[in-house]
Structure formats: C-alpha cells, structure tokens
Amino acid sequence: MSSDDRSLDRSRWGRLVATVIVTVAAVTPGLMAPALAAPVQHALGLSGTAFGAAVTCFFAFTAAGSPVARRVVPRLPVRAVLGAVGLLAAAVLAGLAVADRLWQLCLLLALAGFGNAFTQPVAARVIAADIAPGRHSFAGGLFGASLGAGPFLPGLLVTLVAAPYGWRPALWTAAGLALLALVAAALARPARPGADAPEAVPAERPGGTARPVAAAAPRTVGRVVAAWTAAAALATIGSNVGAAYFIQIGTASGFSAATAGTLQMLASVLGIAVRLASGGLADRAPHRIPWTVTAMMLTGSAGLAVIVAGTPAAFVAGALLAVAGGWGWTGLLLAATMRLLPGESARAGAAMQGGLFAGAAVGPLSFGALSAQFGVAATVGVAAAGPLLGALLLAAGIRALGRGAGGAASASAAGHAAGPASAEPAPAAIRADAPQGR
User: Fold this and answer.
1) Is the full-model pTM beyond 0.85?
2) CATH superfamily, domain at 9-189+216-407
C-alpha cells in the first residue's frame, strides 16, 4: 500500500471518529441533567415531574430538529456542522452550571437538543462518503458507541466531582471537556479533496459496493422505514429510562450515588464493546442486521424487567443487559436503514434520529410522573414494555419487506417473460449510494 493510500485510510476513519467525539459532547447535556437529578431538584426546589419536563426538552427538540437537520446537513461542510454542535454543547453545559430557574433549564436543554439533532444525519453522510460499503455496519457500531459512551462521562463526573464538590462544579468540568469536541471538529479532514464541500457526491469507495436489500417497491420501503422509526421510538422509551436515570434507579436499589456512578461507567464501557463487536460481526451478514436488532431490543426489555426485583444484584444484572445490550442496536439500525435507502444517507440518519429521540423524550417526563406515584421499580417495569413492543414492530417491518421483495421479484420475472419492452425500471430503493464508475 502506498503512502497516499495509507493517508486516505486514516482520513476516511478520522472524520467518523471526530463525529463520534462531537456526538458524545452533544448528548452530554441530556445525560448530565438526569444523572444530577437529586441534587439539582433539591437545590432549585423542583418536583420530579417539573425536572423531568426540563430533561424532556432535550430529547423532544432533538426529535423535532431532525427534519431540519436532514435538509441542512447536505448543504454545509461537515467540519462546520461538527464545530457548531460542539460549541453549542459546551456553551449549554456552562449555562446549566449557573442556572437557577426551571425555565433556564428548559431553554438550555432545548438548545442542546436542537444541536444534537445534527449528529446522526452528519454521521450517515460521513459513513456514506468515507467508509467502504462492506464496513458500514462496523462504522454504524462505531457511531453508536458515542451513545454508549454518553453515560460514561456523567457517571465519571458524578463519582469524582459531584459527590465531593457539588453538581455545579461537575457541570463546569463537563463544559471544559466538551471543548475538546472543537478540536476534533477542526481535525475532521475529508477523505479526498472536495469531499467536504456542500452537496459533495462521494466517489466509489474501495472494497466494492454494498449489497442492497431486496428490491421492494418504494411504497413498501417507505412503510418499512416508518415502522422501523416507530420501533426505534418505542424501544428507546425503555432504554432511555435505563441509561438516563441509571444513578437514580441504582440508589433506589440500594447503592450509593458514587457506587451507582461507577456501575454506570462500567455499563457504558460494556455498551461500547457490544456496539463495536456487533457492528464488526454484522458486516459478515448484513442481511441479518434487522433480526439482530430485534434480539437486542428483547435483551433490553428483559434487563429492565430484571431490575424490577429491586435488589442490588438484580440491578447490576438487569442494568448491564438494559444499557449494554438494549442500547447496542442503535448503530446497527442506522446501518440497516442506510442499506434500505441507498443514496439517501441524510434521510436514513434523520429518520433514525427522529425515532430515537422521540422515544427518549417520553422517558424523562413519564419517569418523573410515574415514579412519584408508583415508585421507581414499578416505573421501570412499565418501561420494559417499550423495547418489547419495538421488537415486535421491527419484526413486522422485516416481514413486510420480505413480502414486498417477493412481489417485486415475481413482477420482474413476469416482465422478462413478456419481453424487454415490458420491463419496469428498478425502484429507487436499490440505487447505489455512489456512482458505479469513477
């Protein structure tokens, strides 16, 4: 391999790594707030429902901002988008450190959520432009690792900063660390000259082209994307409760806040490992990715159900399943949707982002209200239904895609039998994501 080829390899993965770093910074405000729920509520005199409403603003504005991000991301350089998102995350964390009113929390978390909306569409764009099609699942797992790493920083800061020094110093520390995202954004160089320009069309990547999904009709593809988006929303309701309120659930199960924070860090590390390993394995059989996601959603549901027992041992076992396994599917579902929508990476990213954070928006508000009425254990039990329903809906979409592909194949065979003049053009769903020639 020549030195130019090695340079291309480094920058190809480099932009995605930079996107992961910025995404960790972008989700930190939405995860730091619930991790510090108890001290913030006490200091500001907020009820659990009011605080949950503030946290909901982050996830709701991420979901609401996804359609905007889908239109904006293809028109701006990747480095500009990443830099703006990283700067906004750092500014919001600094603002949260000095906030003393509920409306301030709501406004700041809403701004952070809107910035976070841009991360998944830009990741999908980078994967489509920079990563060989045969490595898309691993790339999706690497990006999904940013969500797995998201709980790590709050857990670390609760243990090392918030417990001994208070919640405001913890937020100031998080703001300082978020500035590292600006460095990552500045170093996010495109894989080839001109690739970072607005509306850049990637050249064919080395390693062949991605094997497309079966040629279902565009209408069927649209319905399946909608079903998968809804499945992501349902599954995230439960997964978000386990990830965002990990420390609060841990203390209710008998652990101290510091110990629960340490466990959150361990679960986060395991979640990262699961995402990377599952992504690497999925590249060997990309057609099985949706069923893998279904199994992981069921794992998350089972983990939340185990936590309901309310004992320390049950919390450890259930939380590891819920956070590591139940959250491990996010990058894989993005990769599967990109295969379903070749040539439309921004649409795929925005669809999954909208589903993920629409579901996440339900978690904080409902957790605050239900836990106040029925207790933490019962609320976690209700949340376990979300991933279960999501898995069922995802499976229904997979079957619909199979039926649609079978119908399209039959129609194509009939067209060939009737002669070339009757052959239909290939549906948009099987277009290549890049031109087939150089």
Assistant:
1) no
2) MFS general substrate transporter like domains (1.20.1250.20)
